C-alpha cells in the first residue's frame, strides 16, 4: 500500500464538529461511522460533553491520538482546525466543509491558506467541499451520504458527491460492491492522480473507476496511469465533452484540437478506458473485476433465441472484437450434439427447447475451440430452462476453461437469483446483449493496453540556443505571433524547409529567385493575414523575369485587403512538385491540463474542412508518432494508394518527433502550425509556419532527462 493507506484503514476517526442535532451533517457522519466502523470514533466539539453516547472532546489537543480527522466546521474555522491537527500529528484529513474556491474570491483565498497549512504539516487532505470517504473492509463510512457501500474490489472516486450517493443507491440494488470510495471535492491537495497511484498499489483493488470533470495535472496523471494500468484497469467517465473555447484559438491546431481532444488523447495514452455513460462505466468494471483476460478477440455466442443471437452478433461487429470462426472439428462436434434444427455455426442457436444440458454442452464445445477467446450466453426464458441451473453450469465451464464468459439472462424476477449466483463467481449478467459484449470488449482492450510497449522519446541533436533567439522575436510582435519569417526555428530542430528567403524589396526578390533553380513560389508575409491564398497572397510557378512585378502585386493585394496590416515582405521559395506529394499538417496546441498536444493530419486548404487528424500528448516516441500517421483516413495517400508513388513516411514520423521535442523543451510555445508539411517520395519539406509564444516563459527547460 502507498502513502494513503492509513486514510482508508485508520484505527481512530475523529469528527471535528460532531453533533447530535437532528439534520446536521456532523451528526450524519458520526452516525454513519458508528453504524459499522471497526475502529474508535472520537467526537470533537467544544459545545458538547457527549454526542450519540460517546464522550465529546472540546478540541484536538485534548482528544486521543487521531489517525483520520473529518472536518465539519464552519469555513472560517477550517484553517485553524487543520493547523491544530497538524500540530497534534494527524496526517490524514477529510474536509467536508464547503465555502472555498467554488464560492468566489474570499473562498479562493481560504483555499490557498488550506493548501499552505497542508504543505507545512505534510497533510493528506481530501476536499474541501467533499462528501467524505468510505472503506468497506473496515466498515468505515466517513460520509454524510444516506447509503453505505457493499464490499467489493472496485475502488471509486468522484468529483461530484451527489454522483456518489446516486451510484451507491443503484449499486446496492444491483449487488455491486466497492473497496474504497472517495469524494474528491475541490482537489486542493489530493487529486485523482494520488488515488490512482494508491489503488494501483492496493492488492485488494481489482478495478479503479471514476467520474471526473477535469484532471488537475494531466502530465502527472498520464504518467501515473501508465504505470498502474500495467496491472490494474482504470475506467473513467469524463464530463464536459464540448469546448466552445477552442473555436477562438488562433491556429488550425488550436481550433481542431480543443480540450476534449486533449482528454481523449491523454486518457488513451495513459491506458484509461473511457466510458460514455454511468451504465457503461459499470458494465466495464463488472467484467474487469471478476473475469480472466481473453487470449484472442474471437467471441462465441450461445443462445436459444435467434433474434437475441443476431443482436449479439451485431454488437460484436460494433466492438473491437470479432465473431470466432469455428474449426471444422468444433462444427462437427456441435452438429453431433445439437438437434438438426439448431445452427452449429457462430452464433450457436440451440433453439427454443434447449435445456441446461444442451446449453452447457454447446458452451463447452465452443470454449474448447482454439479460435474462441471469450463467450456470451444469451438466454430467453422458457418452461424447460432453469436459469439457476444454467448459472451453475456457466460457472463450471468458466472454471474449467479459464476463458471469460458473460451472460445475458433476459427477463425480470426469473433471472434475479441466477444473477446473484453468477455475481458471486465474478460473472456479470446483462439484460442487453450489447452490454454483455461491451464487458468482453473492455477485457480485450485492457489486455491490449497491458501488452503494448511505449517507446522512449528520441532526443535529437538540435540547436536550442538558436531556437530560443528566434522565439524571442515574438516579444517585438503586438500579439506574440510569429510566421514564416521564423522558419529558421524549424531548421534549428532539423525539420527540412525549401530553399528561399524573405525579402522586403522587389529587386532582392529577383536576386533570390535567380539563385533558385526553376520557377519559384511567392507569398505575402504578414502576421495579420492568416489565409494568404484567400486574398491572392500566393503566386505559384513564377519565372525569374516576372518576380519583380509579382512582388509589387502581392504587396498591393495585401494593402487593399487589410490597409493596417503589418507587411514584413514577401517570401521567395523553391517550387516543389506537389503533384507527386501530399500536403499534411503537423502542429501543437498547449492544453491547460495535459500540456503540449500534437496534431497530424491532411493539411493545406483541407485541414479545417475535412479535419482528418490524429492527436497525442507530447513528448512521444517513434511508435506513437507512427500511430499518428497511420490513424488518419488519408494515410493510404502517403503509402502509395492507387498507383501513387509512396511518400517518405519515415521523414514524416521523424518530423513529428522533432516537433514533439521542440514544444516540450520550449513551454513558451503556446500554439504552432507547420502547414503544409509536404510529404513526397524524396522527403518532407515544411512550407509554412505559424506560432504563438509566451515570451514571459521563454527560457527553455534545462531538464531534458524525461524527454
From TrEMBL:
It catalyses: acetate + ATP + CoA = acetyl-CoA + ADP + phosphate. It comes from the Archaea. SUPFAM superfamilies: Glutathione synthetase ATP-binding domain-like (SSF56059), NAD(P)-binding Rossmann-fold domains (SSF51735), Succinyl-CoA synthetase domains (SSF52210). Residues 7-100 form the CoA-binding domain. Its EC number is 6.2.1.13. GO terms for molecular function: acetate-CoA ligase (ADP-forming) activity; ATP binding. SMART domains: CoA_binding (SM00881). It holds the Pfam family ATP-grasp_5. The keyword Cytoplasm does not apply. Gene3D superfamilies: ATP-grasp fold, A domain, ATP-grasp fold, B domain, NAD(P)-binding Rossmann-like Domain, Succinyl-CoA synthetase domains. Keywords: ATP-binding, Ligase, Nucleotide-binding. PANTHER family: 3-HYDROXYPROPIONATE--COA LIGASE [ADP-FORMING], ACETATE--COA LIGASE [ADP-FORMING]. This is acetate--CoA ligase (ADP-forming).
Amino acid at each position: 500500500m502507498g502513502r494513503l493507506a492509513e486514510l482508508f484503514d485508520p484505527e481512530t476517526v475523529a469528527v471535528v464538529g460532531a453533533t447530535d442535532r437532528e439534520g446536521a451533517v456532523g451528526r450524519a457522519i458520526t452516525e454513519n461511522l458508528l453504524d459499522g466502523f471497526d475502529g474508535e470514533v472520537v467526537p470533537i466539539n467544544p459545545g458538547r460533553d457527549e454526542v450519540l453516547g460517546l464522550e465529546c472532546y472540546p478540541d484536538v489537543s485534548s482528544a486521543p491520538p487521531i489517525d483520520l480527522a473529518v472536518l465539519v466546521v464552519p469555513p472560517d474555522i477550517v484553517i485553524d482546525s487543520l493547523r491544530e491537527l497538524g500540530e497534534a500529528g494527524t496526517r490524514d484529513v477529510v474536509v467536508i466543509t464547503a465555502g472555498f474556491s467554488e464560492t468566489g474570491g474570499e473562498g479562493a483565498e481560504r483555499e490557498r491558506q488550506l493548501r499552505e497549512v497542508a504543505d507545512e504539516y505534510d497533510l493528506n487532505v481530501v476536499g474541501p467541499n467533499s462528501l467524505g470517504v468510505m472503506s468497506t473492509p473496515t466498515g468505515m463510512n466517513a460520509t454524510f451520504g444516506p447509503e453505505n457501500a457493499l464490499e467489493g474490489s472496485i475502488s471509486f472516486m468522484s468529483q461530484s458527491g451527489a454522483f456518489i450517493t446516486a451510484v451507491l443507491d443503484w449499486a446496492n440494488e444491483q449487488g455491486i460492491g466497492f473497496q474504497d470510495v472517495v469524494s474528491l471535492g475541490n482537489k486542493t491537495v489530493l487529486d485523482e492522480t494520488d488515488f490512482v497511484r494508491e489503488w494501483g498499489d492496493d492488492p485488494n483493488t481489482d478495478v479503479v473507476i471514476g467520474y471526473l470533470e477535469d484532471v488537475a495535472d494531466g502530465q502527472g496523471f498520464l504518467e501515473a496511469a501508465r504505470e498502474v494500468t500495467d496491472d490494474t484497469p482504470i475506467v473513467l467517465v469524463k464530463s464536459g465533452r464540448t469546448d466552445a473555447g477552442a473555436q477562438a484559438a488562433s491556429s488550425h491546431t488550436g481550433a481542431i484540437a480543443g480540450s476534449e481532444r486533449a482528454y481523449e488523447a491523454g486518457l488513451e495514452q495513459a491506458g484509461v478506458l473511457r466510458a460514455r455513460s454511468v451504465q457503461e462505466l459499470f458494465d466495464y468494471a463488472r467484467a474487469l473485476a471478476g473475469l480472466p483476460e481473453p487470449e484472442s478477440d474471437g467471441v462465441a455466442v450461445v443462445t436459444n433465441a435467434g433474434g437475441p443471437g443476431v443482436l449479439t452478433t451485431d454488437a460484436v461487429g460494433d466492438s473491437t472484437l470479432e465473431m470466432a470462426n469455428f474449426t471444422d472439428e468444433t462444427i462437427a462436434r456441435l452438429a453431433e450434439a445439437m438437434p438438426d434444427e439448431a445452427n452449429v455455426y457462430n452464433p450457436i442457436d440451440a433453439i427454443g427447447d434447449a435445456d441446461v444440458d444442451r446449453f452447457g454442452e454447446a458452451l463447452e464445445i465452443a470454449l474448447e475451440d482454439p479460435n474462441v477467446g471469450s463467450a456470451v450466453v444469451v438466454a430467453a426464458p422458457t418452461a424447460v430452462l432453469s436459469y439457476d441451473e444454467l448459472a451453475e453450469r456457466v460457472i463450471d465451464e468458466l472454471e474449467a476453461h479459464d476463458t471469460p464468459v458473460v451472460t445475458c439472462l433476459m427477463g425480470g424476477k426469473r433471472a434475479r437469483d441466477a444473477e446473484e449466483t453468477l455475481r458471486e463467481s465474478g460473472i456479470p449478467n446483462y439484460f442487453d446483449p450489447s452490454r454483455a459484449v461491451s464487458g468482453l470488449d473492455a477485457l480485450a482492450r485492457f489486455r491490449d493496453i497491458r501488452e503494448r510497449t511505449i517507446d522512449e522519446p528520441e532526443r535529437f541533436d538540435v540547436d536550442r540556443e538558436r531556437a530560443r533567439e528566434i522565439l524571442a522575436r515574438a516579444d517585438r510582435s503586438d500579439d506574440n505571433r510569429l510566421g514564416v519569417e521564423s522558419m529558421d526555428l524549424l531548421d534549428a530542430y532539423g525539420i527540412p524547409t525549401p530553399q528561399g528567403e524573405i525579402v522586403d524589396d522587389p529587386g532582392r526578390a529577383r536576386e533570390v529567385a535567380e539563385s533558385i533553380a526553376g520557377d519559384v513560389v511567392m507569398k505575402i508575409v504578414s502576421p495579420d493575414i492568416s489565409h494568404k491564398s484567400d486574398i491572392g497572397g500566393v503566386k505559384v510557378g513564377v519565372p525569374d523575369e516576372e518576380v519583380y512585378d509579382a512582388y509589387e502585386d502581392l504587396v498591393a493585394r495585401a494593402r487593399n485587403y487589410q490597409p493596417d496590416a503589418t507587411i514584413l515582405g514577401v517570401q521567395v521559395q523553391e517550387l516543389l512538385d506537389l503533384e507527386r506529394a501530399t500536403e499534411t499538417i503537423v502542429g501543437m496546441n498547449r492544453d491547460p491540463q495535459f500540456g503540449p498536444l500534437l496534431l497530424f493530419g491532411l493539411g493545406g486548404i483541407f485541414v479545417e474542412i475535412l479535419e482528418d487528424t490524429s492527436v497525442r500528448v507530447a513528448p512521444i516516441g517513434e511508435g506513437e508518432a507512427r500511430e499518428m500517421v497511420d490513424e488518419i483516413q488519408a494515410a493510404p495517400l502517403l503509402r502509395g494508394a492507387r498507383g501513387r508513388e509512396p511518400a517518405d513516411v519515415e521523414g514524416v514520423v521523424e518530423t513529428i518527433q522533432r516537433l514533439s521535442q521542440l514544444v516540450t523543451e520550449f513551454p513558451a510555445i503556446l500554439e504552432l502550425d507547420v502547414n503544409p508539411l509536404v510529404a513526397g517520395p524524396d522527403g518532407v519539406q515544411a512550407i509554412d509556419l505559424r506560432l504563438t509564444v509566451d515570451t514571459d516563459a521563454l527560457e527553455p527547460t534545462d531538464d531534458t532527462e524525461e524527454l
